[in-house]
Amino acid sequence: MGGFLGQVAKRLGAGKVLGTVGNPEKAKLAASFGYDELFVRSEFAEKTLKSTGQKGVHAVFDPVGGSMRKQSLEVLCPLGQLVVVGNASGEEDVSHSFNQIWFSNKQSAGFTLGGYAESNPAETGKAAREALSMLARKEIHAEIHGVYPLEKAAEALTLLEQKNTVGKLVLKV
Fold first, then answer.
1. How far is it, in rounded angstroms, from Cα 44 to Cα 75?
2. How many CB atoms within 10 Å of residue 71?
């Protein structure tokens, strides 16, 4: 997801796009996805605030969850928005005070493609066609870590669970 977010943000006119990686080895690949600066996840809040002169960012898309969710709220500028798009960390949900969100003039939203597709199939199909067209026109790109036959889906899933991939895994049907 992170690879696409940076590219699409730039394509839609975002000025400065910051990103995070789980470890330094992933930074080189991530740099090819349009990010102006990349930080290792453990330094995310500190480096993001430093990069913005302590002002914070306008939006954070958080697929990680857990403690990153709290840090994501901390780095938002007033009227900034946290968009929760996953919980890849598997950590427990982090509760947050809505009064604190209110008093700090921040926003929080959630998005899951499956749920959205169920209630808005036509819009989802249109967006999917546009995304695939962008890939076909080479306006954005994807790094493919490996292509696996469907019979080896368990092997591919194990690689994902072990966080031993850089890029996308494709199941061939």
1. 9
2. 19
Mean pLDDT, all residues of the chain: 91
Structure-token pair, residue 150: 């469907």
Q: Is 127 exposed, middle or buried (0-12, 13-18, 19+ CB in 10 A)?
A: middle
Polymer length in residues for the chain: 173
For the stretch 30-37, contacts whose Cβ atoms lie closer than 8 Å and that sit 24 or more positions apart, written own/partner, are 30/2, 30/3, 30/6, 32/141, 32/143, 33/2, 33/3, 33/4, 33/6, 33/7, 33/141, 34/6, 34/7, 34/9, 34/10, 35/6
Residue 105: which residues within 8 A CB-CB, separation 6 or more?
A: 78, 79
pTM recorded for the entire structure: 0.83
CA dist 39 → 4, 20, 48, 166, 172 (Å): 17, 5, 8, 16, 33
Q: What is the pLDDT of residue 40?
A: 92
Q: Please tell me the distance from the alpha carbon of residue 4 to that of residue 64, in angstroms, as a whole number.
A: 15
Digit-coded pLDDT (tens) for 111-159: 999 999 999 999 999 999 999 999 999 999 888 889 999 999 999 999 8
